[in-house]
C-alpha cells in the first residue's frame, strides 16, 4: 500500500473544489431533469423503427425542418409527441427499396 502525504491546506482545497463540482453537476441535473421527465424522448434508432424509415430519411426530415430534435452530447433526441404528429400528418417522403426519396 502506498501512502501519499500532502499539506492540509492542499487537501482542503481539493475537497472544496470537488464540493463545488458536485454542486454544479447537481444544478445542471436539476435544470434538465424536468425536461426529460415531462416528455418521452427517442433516439435515432427508436425513431427509425417507429416510423419504419432509414437513417438517411430521418436526416432528410431533420434537414427540411420536418422533425424537430435536440442534441445532447453529440446525440440527437426527438420528442415522442413530435414523431407521433409527423406520423399522423403522413410521412412527407416515401423511400423506395434503395434508400432514395421520392419527392
Describe the 3D structure.
- With 103 residues, the chain is α+β, with helices and mostly antiparallel strands.
- It folds into two domains: 8-38; 39-103, Multidrug-efflux Transporter Regulator, Chain: A, Domain 2 (Orthogonal Bundle), CATH 1.10.1660.
- The protein is built from four helices and five strands, in the order H-E-H-H-E-E-H-E-E.
- Strands 1-3-2 form a three-stranded antiparallel sheet. A two-stranded antiparallel sheet has the order 4-5.
- It is elongated and about 65 Å long.
- The model is unreliable at 95-103 (pLDDT under 50).
Topology overview:
Blueprint: H1 8-38, E1 41-43, H2 44-51, H3 55-63, E2 70-72, E3 75-79, H4 80-89, E4 94-95, E5 101-102
Antiparallel strand pairs: 1-3, 2-3, 4-5
Keywords: DNA-binding
Protein name: DNA-binding protein
Pfam families: HTH_17 (PF12728)
List keywords for this structure.
single chain; disordered C terminus; Multidrug-efflux Transporter Regulator, Chain: A, Domain 2; two-stranded antiparallel ribbon; elongated; 103 residues; 2 domains; alpha+beta; 56% helix; three-stranded antiparallel β-sheet
Amino acid at each position: 500500500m502506498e501512502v501519499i502525504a500532502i499539506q492540509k491546506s492542499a487537501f482542503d482545497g481539493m475537497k472544496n473544489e470537488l464540493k463545488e463540482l458536485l454542486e454544479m453537476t447537481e444544478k445542471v441535473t436539476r435544470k434538465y431533469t424536468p425536461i426529460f421527465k415531462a416528455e418521452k424522448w427517442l433516439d435515432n434508432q427508436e425513431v427509425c423503427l417507429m416510423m419504419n424509415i432509414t437513417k438517411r430519411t430521418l436526416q432528410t426530415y431533420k434537414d427540411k425542418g420536418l422533425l424537430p430534435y435536440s442534441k445532447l452530447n453529440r446525440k440527437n433526441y426527438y420528442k415522442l409527441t413530435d414523431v407521433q404528429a409527423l406520423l399522423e400528418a403522413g410521412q412527407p417522403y416515401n423511400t423506395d427499396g434503395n434508400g432514395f426519396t421520392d419527392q
